[in-house]
Amino acid sequence: MGLLAFFRKKPANAQPNGEDNALTEIHERLVMQVAACKTPVISAVGHETDFTLCDYAADLRAPTPSAAAELASVDQQELQNTMELLRGRIAAVAFGRVQQCSHRLEMLKDRPCFRQPERELKKYTKNLEYLANSIQIAWKNGIIGRQERLKMQAARLNALNPLARLAGGYSVTMKDGEILSSVKTVQQGDVLQIRLADGMLESEVTKVSLLEE
After folding, report:
1. Tens digit of pLDDT for each residue in 11-55?
2. C-alpha distance from residue 33 to each of 10, 27, 42, 58 (Å)
3. Is the dihedral of CA 61, 64, 68, 70 positive or negative?
4. Each residue's pLDDT tens digit, 172-200
């Protein structure tokens, strides 16, 4: 748009009329507009042996306007060749991908799970049954083992219980609620409590005898 506005104000085909300074100013401003233009510019004065400043400021230089038009346009044959090349590459990539997927499919078809699915299913079913039985057996053995250990611990605790020994004919003698372990703490006339397996007895001490070692 900057170049179009420039040409509307200052015609580019102005001929020298003695105002060299004005033409120089126009040329300089034209060069600045070409350099600042965001749209690509092709400089094509036409049949000029010398280079102009616009040639250096432009994006591309052509010897004639016709050559500039050829440079600005797309070569249909070249475009067609490029499209054919890209089409061939896409077809090659697609074909290679199809071949790769086909090869993988053939490999999968040769696996036993696809060739003989019933046989493979039976094999895995047997494995699952074996694992289930193993888990069940281990669970039962664990429960039985824990029960046996509990029985053993109960028997040990029962053996340590002094009341359990009373059933075998033993007794526990106490004085004033305290268990006696020596005759030295007893005197004649003391009243003692005797604990048996099925009840209590009270007795009065009539004689105290100390065993000889």
Report:
1. 444 444 445 565 567 677 888 888 888 888 888 876 666 777 888
2. 12, 10, 13, 10
3. negative
4. 888 888 888 888 888 888 888 888 878 88
Largest Cα span, the chain: 166
Q: Distance from CA of residue 135 to its chain's centroid?
A: 32
Cβ neighbour number for residue 52 with a 10 Å cutoff: 15
Locate tokens 């070692």: which residue? 213
Rounded to the nearest 5 degrees, what angle is found at the Cα of 156, between the Cα atoms of 155 and 161?
A: 95
Helix (H, G, I), strand (E, B) or coil at 196: coil
Owner of token pair 């299913």: 121
Read off the pTM: 0.29
Alpha helices in the chain (DSSP H): 2-9, 20-36, 53-57, 65-72, 76-109, 112-115, 117-160, 162-165
Name the residue type at position 112: P
